[in-house]
Specification:
The complex is a heterodimer. Chain A is an all-alpha fold. Chain A has two domains: about 70 residues, no CATH class; about 190 residues, MetI-like fold (Orthogonal Bundle), CATH 1.10.3720.10. In chain A, helix 5 runs antiparallel to helix 11 and helix 13 packs antiparallel against helix 14. Chain B is mainly α. Chain B has a single domain, classed as MetI-like (MetI-like fold). The longest helix of chain B is centred in the middle third of the chain and has 37 residues. Chain B is elongated, with a radius of gyration of 23 Å. The chains are: A mainly alpha, B mainly alpha. At the A-B interface, helix 1, helix 6, helix 7, helix 12 and helix 13 of A face helix 5, helix 6, helix 9, helix 10 and helix 11 of B. Chain B: Its main location: membrane.
Chain lengths: ~325, ~300
């Protein structure tokens, strides 16, 4: 077990190292000049050079990389070139927003897909099963941006149920209106997850229900409901868990379209902004932070695998 | 020696299961053909858009701004009086070029590497597999957005960028699909007859992996079309006035309350096409019985 954890840890550090190098060189090798963004296109070359020196951008790339990574290891993620805000501050104000979106959307997705999958798997090819399978297929093909535009048109412009884009309120300031504004984006993010979870769990449940131990449980006279929840659900939830891991890590910075369209200042929103402003340090540090979070999520999911199926840990 | 058939002849690719697969292959149902026809029509319309006698997609007419559907303009006109029907068809060019183009790049490079890695194993496999894991761990969207933002928004650049970004994923899928065949008897038979590695990969392994590749390809194209749309929303796809489905949907936001037709038709075009791709991919996968658990 110790060896297993140790080997995982070394692999993790190697991957994080590669990502830090990738994030750094990706953005530095690309054309784009931060001095133009900061000083405007008409400033003198002398001022530009002075600024490059001040930001440390005149040093060789490898030296810049080492300085950055050394600071990061000491917990200093650097400062935004443009707003002079510290990157840790940007992350600490943006990341909770993503967390909230992820938690809201995943609770809704699981709360919706698990009962639906169970009901569908009870009678495969029944009316409910066919209806929900077909619907889920259609939903899978609707891109999030179309969904947002349509939902905003329907719920914000016509029905006035949810506030439109740009009405984000921080949670600390007003929890009720915050939740009110977050429901629409959470619904958009929920749809994609729900369809995938439903399809996976339904397929796995149908396969599990054909196994011998279910027949044994039935012949013991246990009720269908008991068999479903106590016997079938647990061994059927491994692919669901795996895909939940993928989905959640995808949402850490991947909700950017939703955030960008509704002007919600989450990590994806900040990242797209920093990229467009050629803000080297912010992009590097946020990317690295996102990678660390994704790695941690995968770690937790791996652990949950062993909880759901203890045989995995014994191997 | 002529009476000894080659491995490919004597041991058909799908040993034993070939009859079943063939029987199933004809039994894909009417839905499959309807959606295939839909894809064919969309692709042909996009390719031959300039021969269809459509109105100029970028030619505005200030007398007819934001009109609903009429007989002259089937899908109505947009905020500059441009014909939406014509723009949807010309817009398909961008979305389809990026979708099919990017996945083709990914397939050629990632697919070749995947088959070689699964067949040769050893150091080649270890090196390419590790590289793919590192690339997959990197937030791909961040990379795509950053490179598009700095390198440029031309359609061929976007295609190449997304294509390269898809390589590690394609590699993993093709490698996994190939692995299950690489140790089968018909490969050993071919090897013992002195077939070259090239011949084994192209003649023995490729035909077997093809079904898995095709269904993954179609579903991949659907995801790339969505990605192109997302880039359009960030202003990082082809620049106006060039129409793409993503561009049109993104631009429609400004006039959403006055003219909902603007968002309706490009969205329907995109969603129908995505449904068709996903459905065909899914039917092919279940009919040809590609085992997902091996991925």
């Amino acid at each position: 077990m110790t060896r297993f954890v140790l080997r995982r840890l070394i692999a993790l550090i190697a991957i994080l190292f590669c990502i830090s190098v990738g994030a750094f060189f990706l953005i530095h090798l690309l054309p784009g000049d931060p001095t133009v963004t900061i000083l405007g296109p008409n400033d003198t070359p002398e001022n530009r050079n002075a600024l490059l020196k001040e930001l440390g951008l005149n040093l060789p790339l490898w030296q810049q990389y080492l300085t950055w990574i050394w600071n990061v290891l000491q917990g200093n993620l650097g400062q935004s070139f443009i707003t002079h805000q510290s990157v840790s501050k940007i992350i600490s104000s943006a990341f909770p927003i993503d967390l909230e979106l992820i938690i809201l959307s995943q609770i809704m997705a699981l709360g919706f897909s698990i009962p639906l999958a169970i009901a569908s798997a009870r009678r495969p090819n029944g009316l409910l099963d066919r209806a929900s399978t077909t619907t889920s297929f259609g939903m899978l093909a609707i891109p999030p941006f179309i969904l947002i535009v349509v939902l905003v048109l329907l719920f914000s412009i016509h029905l006035h149920i949810f506030p439109g884009p740009g009405s984000y309120v921080p949670f600390q300031q007003d929890p009720i209106s915050n939740l009110h504004t977050m429901i629409l984006p959470a619904i958009v993010l929920m749809v994609g997850s729900t369809t995938i979870y439903f399809r996976l769990l339904r397929a796995d449940l149908i396969a599990t229900l054909q196994q011998d131990f279910i027949t044994v449980a039935r012949s013991k006279g246990l009720s269908d409901r008991y068999i479903m929840w106590r016997h079938a659900l647990r061994p059927s939830s491994l692919s669901l868990l795996a895909s939940a891991g993928l989905n959640i890590s995808g949402l850490v910075a991947g909700a950017f379209v939703v955030e960008y369209l509704l002007a919600i200042p989450g990590l994806g929103f900040e990242l797209v902004n920093s990229i467009q402003q050629v803000d080297y340090l912010s992009v590097q540090s946020i990317t690295l932070f996102v990678a660390v979070v994704i790695v941690l999520i995968n770690f937790i999911i791996d652990f949950l695998f062993t909880v759901v199926d203890p045989r995995i840990a014994r191997e | 020696m002529s009476n000894i058939p080659t491995a490919a002849d004597s041991i058909p690719a799908l040993t034993g299961s070939s009859d079943i697969a063939k029987k199933k292959r004809f039994d894909v149902g009417l839905v499959f053909w309807i959606f295939t026809l839909w894809i064919a029509i969309t692709v042909l319309a996009a390719i031959f858009a300039s021969l269809l006698g459509l109105q100029d997609p970028n030619q505005g007419n200030y007398d007819i701004l934001n009109q609903g559907p009429t007989t002259a303009h089937w899908f109505g006109t947009d905020d500059l009086g441009r014909d939406i029907f014509s723009r949807v068809i010309y817009g398909a060019r961008v979305s389809l070029t990026v979708g099919f183009g990017a996945l083709t790049i990914g397939m050629i490079i990632g697919g070749t590497l995947g088959m070689i890695a699964a067949y040769r194993r050893g150091p080649v496999d270890i090196i390419v597999s590790s590289a793919s894991y590192v690339m997959l761990a990197f937030p791909a969207l961040v990379a795509v957005i950053a490179i598009v933002a700095f390198w440029g928004h031309e359609i061929w650049k976007i295609t190449i960028i997304i294509g390269v970004a898809s390589i590690p994923l394609v590699f993993r899928v093709v490698r996994a699909a190939t692995l299950s065949y690489a140790t089968r008897d018909f490969v050993t038979a071919a090897k013992s007859q002195g077939a070259t590695d090239w011949r084994i990969i192209t003649k023995e392994l490729f035909p077997n992996v093809l079904p898995a590749i095709i269904s993954f390809y179609l579903i991949g194209v659907a995801s790339v079309i969505i990605l192109e749309g997302a880039l359009a929303f960030l202003g990082l796809s082809v620049q106006p006035p060039t129409a793409s489905w993503g561009n049109m949907i993104s631009e429609s936001r400004t006039y959403l309350s006055q003219n909902p037709w603007l968002v309706l038709f490009p969205s329907l075009a995109m969603v129908f096409f995505l449904v068709a791709l996903n459905l065909i991919g899914d039917i092919l996968r279940s009919t040809l019985d590609v085992q997902e658990s091996q991925l």
